[in-house]
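General statements about sequence and structure are easier to judge against a single worked case. For one protein, we set the task of working out the structure tokens from the amino acid sequence alone. The sequence in question and its structure tokens are set out directly beneath this paragraph.
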Amino acid sequence: MAPIIEVHGLIKRYRGATTNAVDDISFDVAPGEFFTLLGPNGAGKTTIISILTTTLAPTSGEVRIAGYDVVRSSSEVRQNIGIIFQQPSLDFNLTAEENIRFHAILYGLYPFHFTFSMMPRSYRDRVNELAALLGLENEMFKQVKKFSGGMRRKLEIIRSLLHKPRVLFLDEPTAGLDPVSRRSLWEYLGKVRYESGTTIFLTTHYLEEAEEADKICMINRGRILSFGSPQQVKANLIEHYLLIDAENRSQLREELQRLGIPFSRRHSSRSA
């Protein structure tokens, strides 16, 4: 099966910079996969996701989403993706449903109508379906300013999934959420993925979120440090060793040398 996301030789250098923000990165993402881009702040995660979602042009390299080039076919790419940004992008003075309707009309998914009841049945059914999936069926006609942070994130998920995207991009989606809301959000995203087969592309600096992924791409300073399953990434990065000590350290060193066991000496205040 062809990858849903293809990134080959991606480079991004901002004007006036002396180094690349993204430095020759390549990876593929399979359809339906949960893929995580993991790294500290400033590693290049937001630059990469901005290029993949057509909001930033690459300096060089090739990026394809659902078979479409992000530069030459940006409109087709946007039709196949949903995005949840790090910072909420909701109008707090509108109701939850009005936020969704505004998004649907703005992106040309449905014609404009003044009320929910006047919208096409396909729109109403889709909104009700997603609201039930995410547990917001009783909140859709309430103002967003009354919502908790977790509820606003769920509303953004509904909005981003309205057109049934093949890929859902999540840029640090749990930033600012309390642990309970963070856990609930991932439970609902798991349901979305199970129900629709949506590919999930996450950027995060939380290791515990990355551990749930099928594949992890760990980056720093625009370069890939490790790539693979969570188990493979851990094996690549974790050094296994045994720390031992003895009253007679000289004798211990001699015994390790006699047995051919490699070791390194750790300095401490205690004399050898």
Remarks:
- The chain has a mean pLDDT of 88.
